[in-house]
Amino acid sequence: MVRAPLGDSRYWSEWVAYGDERIARALENARAPARDPDYAPQYVYTIAQDHWHQMLSRYSAGCPVADLPPYFPGLLDAWEEAERLGASVWTPEQQFTRHSWRVNYDHYIVCFWLVGLGLALEIPDDQWRRLLALIGNEGEDVLLDRVIASRSPERKVGAALLYPKPYGRLLAAVDAPVETQASKLEAFVSHWYQEVRTGAKSGSDPQAVSYKHPYWYTYGDENFEGGAYFGRWCVEAVAAVKAFGLDDSQCLGLEHYPGDLLRPDGPSTHPVRQEIVPPAPVVAETKVGFWGRLLGRR
Q1: How far apart are CA 1 and CA 266, in angstroms?
Q2: What is the pTM of this model?
Q3: What CA–CA distance (Å, rounded) separates 285 from 245?
Q4: Is the pLDDT of residue 82 over 90?
């Protein structure tokens, strides 16, 4: 059953298959000597990005939640390789603007998503440690650091919330008395898509790059037929539910809440959609990235 509110089974079958092919082609290209060594780190980082896009696309398509964890090894391999290559290419200023949550709102959101996916999918400890090493930013944010600390108690927790909009609502749910947590979590999820658009403006530090909204925000509106859309999922809420045991009963069935991540054995939390075209089977394969194969990782 398709989980995303946009796209039918034919759409998702086509673009999920294309996503796997795209990753395979990119890995083949990465084997060849870089034509532009200065671009090589970003090219390999894009392979990592393709992996988390593909996890979310498979979720949107209605694939089993068990299809998602096999993408983590390839994601980590590519991100680590991008960092290795970037160490000799990116200037100290570029390193800061690429990695700092304070000045890179997109990166903060992506890190929140990956932490949420890692928690919900219960990735192995070695993958979790590699993910945290890549994420960095320890002690920077009172909310995301606390979410991470739920699995890594040694994590230093920041004192301030970097982006009060929209994440003030989620922090309020986490800190609320048990009897009001469910309603406050529902308020966060219900307002998330609207408020995340301009959340960068709520930060105390100026952004490294001026932009109107997160990079993925309009993918369902622009180039939809070209397959850019991978869903609009509030993975941050799932991260908090998994980390703190929040009651998410009032969020089940909401358009942007990926509740099936926490219920891999079903039944689905998403409303049933009328399907005209039956879904084509999509087979998931364990994704061991090129760098992992090269280094003998699994």
Answers
A1: 12
A2: 0.91
A3: 31
A4: yes
